[in-house]
Specification:
Length: 101
Amino acid sequence: EEKMRAVNSFLPYAQGNMDEIYGYKIDKERTIAHNEKMKTYRPGGDGCKIYLQNNTSILVRKSGTEPIMRYFIDSQHEEVLNDLKDKLSQYAQDCGGSIIG
């Protein structure tokens, strides 16, 4: 339940209701299109993907086998990757989780 609440907190970003995440502009069109397409594969879903305007993406999902939230960051910019990793790790800790690798 807790991991689903943590994942669901990212839904407003994935649904196009927010302009930025952690100071980075969201590519709303691409984000909304991707998440709508994913609904056809996994109705109800278990996560969301957020595309940023700097060719970076963030995938946040709950684990299907463990009581954890997973996040994946894909970026061409090492400084953006490290910044988002730090911020998402802090968010996970603030939710009562711990960071693994």
